[in-house]
Amino acid sequence: MSEATPIPMMILTGFLGAGKTTVLNRLLTAQHGLKIAVLVNDFGAINIDAQLVVGVEANEIVNLANGCICCTIREDLLSTTLELLERPDRPEYIIVEASGVSDPVSVALTFRLPALRSLINLAAIVAVVDAERIQEQRQQIVQVGDQIAAADIVVVNKIDLVDPTQQQRVINWIQAIVPRARILTAEYGGVPIDLLLGIGQYQIDLLVDRHEFAPQQHDEDWQTWHYQTAKPFTMSSLQHAFQQLPNSIFRAKGIVYLAEAPERQAIVQLAGKRASLQLGEPWGATPPHSKIVVIGRSQSFDPAQLTAQFDACLAQPTHELREEILTVAEWRRKYQNQ
Ligand SMILES: Nc1nc2c(ncn2[C@@H]2O[C@H](COP(=O)(O)OP(=O)(O)OP(=O)(O)O)[C@@H](O)[C@H]2O)c(=O)[nH]1
Fold this sequence. Notes:
By secondary structure, the protein is of the alpha/beta class. The chain contains 14 helices and twelve strands.
């Protein structure tokens, strides 16, 4: 690709927990032969998303700084993109996974700034929707409708959780908001990849007049909390803690160290009221540790109380567990020196 050819870019949007990372992983593992760079913007203070993205060798996952991509860290988005474009092995396609609370149009407008305008071709804004929860979310959160209104493809995800009538109701609602969009239904982000990657040019010009370049400060609408520890959790207590999180918390996710499975990372997720826990990759060269991030409405939960709740889930080194629970030092001795 010559220096002068603008690189196609997709902005992947959708509310917290809708399935953006799931769609992204499908895209990255599909056979399309493209060298894709992914810019990941997590809203919490610790970046968990980048670790949940399945890396494929030719692709590159870049973590953007902490903060919302459409307001506080726009500069970072701009400079990171420029850096990618200056590399000798420039990517052939760029995907920006926006945080669940960001405004995709403001993100898109970043690429209209003079520094990037001729280098990037905004190919599409893809909005992922949680079919089960969208009706409830749209009444509570204004960003949900805005994200859909900006899209030219809407992926109605999690159709395994709704019946055909509810699915059709969601589709009708989306069609009413954004008649020009192509609507695809999906289970775990499974949509035809060609349809996502081979999209035409996004009509950003239509939106420019409607938007101000002034940063929006909706960072203030949301509260995040995070927890990190090198001690293992007891699985049942952790699952219970996730299920007991207050309703005002929309999303929680973490990569955790479990006393019952000390050799493998465990991934905990909460999207709305649905919690899940699954075992992932072995820790490998990384000493086991846990990091959890939650996102909820501003001032809607007490961080100290959450910290106490999660502290209470840490495994006590009882006689039976003592062999399983390794301190970081022991772990290093056992796994790194062999
Ligand atoms: N039942 C069901 N669960 C799904 C589906 N797609 C994704 N999930 C689950 O929903 C949760 C959230 O998925 P993610 O892909 O992390 O969502 P996200 O939009 O990237 O989340 P944030 O970036 O944190 O806002 C995870 O536990 C997924 O496994 C689906 O089609 N059906």
